[in-house]
Write a structure and sequence with these properties.
This protein has about 525 residues and is α/β, with parallel strands linked by helices. The protein has helices at about 20-35, 50-60, 80-85, 130-140, 155-165, 185, 215-220, 245-255, 270-285, 300-310, 315-320, 345-355, 375-385, 400-410, 470-480, 485-505, 510-520; strands at about 10-15, 40, 65, 95-100, 115-125, 145-150, 175-180, 195-200, 230-235, 260-265, 290-295, 310-315, 325-330, 335-340, 365-370, 390-395, 415-420, 430-435, 460-465, 485. It is built from 17 helices and 20 strands.
Amino acid sequence: MDWTLASEMTYLCVPIFVSDLAQARRDVALAAEAGADLVELRVDEVTDGDLIEQVVSQSTLPVIVTCRPTWEGGRCELPDEQRAALLSRANKAAYIDVELKSGLWKQLRPSDENRPRTIVSFHDFSGRPDKMHNVLTELNQTTAEIVKIVWSARTLRDNLEAFEILQNRQKPSVALCMGEAGMLSRILAKKFGAFLTFASLSNPSATAPGQVTIEQMKRIYRWDAIGPDTKVYGVVGSPIAHSMSPAIHNAAFSQAGIDGVYLPLLVNAGYESFKAFMESFLAMRGMDLSGLSITIPHKENALRYLQEKAGRIEPLAQSIGAVNTIRIDRNGGGEPVMHGINTDYGAILDSITAPLGIQREELAGRRVAVIGAGGTGRTAVAALAHYGATVVIYNRTRERADALADEFNGKTGKVVAAELSKLSGTCCDIFIHTTSIGMHPHAGASVFDGQMPKLSADSLVFDAVYNPMQTRLLTLAQQAGARTVGGVEMFLRQAAGQFHFWTGRDAPVEIMRQVIEQRLG
């Protein structure tokens, strides 16, 4: 079968370890059903050349055949001569992948024009190759039609080097980074013109660290919609793998017809790490970085960076001391102009006022307990104080609560601090919980345990924890007769605010809500 493929495309390839014919046929069928363009048949543990011929000839998708040795991250322990003999049985494959170091590519060039094309590859599982330029030169000097280089990413910036390799390629090329930090190179391979990228059938079947599944690639990361002009958005934090934001914002982009993709961006704690990320990604030619969500531990770092770079910061974010949303404008192709806001502020206020049926101004004089003095607690205190509420901050560390109270007391409303152990005796009628107590996987815990305040039908309890949707705190409050609001409301409102800030369009809130509830359900 002629498996000639168009050279201008970026192919989505599913790797499959071959154990027997039935398993291989089943997995190829699953890959085709999921939308793969081709499959890589890993025959590392196959010693029967007839099996290789059968699997290749019966594949319903174009095939790359790879027999990777243990010395380059594979499972094959055979000498190169035997590996070459096995690979020669794959004469109906579209491609054969061999290692640069093996030299086998010199042997796999029969005169038949219908021969499989050759991919010559280089892998470094320990990190970035020390002599990257030399490796690339060697790869390009081979007789291979396609060259491939893969290494383990140390930070997100490794992805940028992979993209630069693609931008400056001499031949059709694959440049990928492994590990969580390397996920970008796999998702954005199409944007930068890679020959292919890999996605696994399922997480357990991944053949390299950091591979996402083909379902994730297609359904979450909008693979089919990505092109050279796709704008890049993402959530910056550490840790970040658990974030639901990519699923929510990519669904919103799809619904609204926005040419954008939203990614998890793992940036280690510390200002210098955040600054290095921003500097390198803003400078990357063709990246089109257009908007960022900022989460723990970088909200204060984002504010500091924008201050240093003379970015445009809303006064509200300045007073809170934290930025959770950045928009990057490139009007006329000049230097990027950054704008920073805090959408948590409005999300907290609206999550409280909507169930109470009041306007923000009607919070004046209300007695509100804010539990926790971290980033979300600080934002809640700033918002409530601005609208004249009387706020009591309850925190495990009294000194931190005192410092926060001193900062915002007298800014329209009254703000005081109290010991967390005094919560049961509070006279407040609105409660805002902002700590991580009760968050998955510790859903059985509650800050009310052992210090349950007196609640009634006039009380409102808002828990900023959104996973699980029904926390123990909310359950206890409901049993006491109070009205309750879960963290999903805040999460949804702040995400909708970010979407509007980036695109200038109203967010498709119901689609976003559906994604949240499906993923938490």
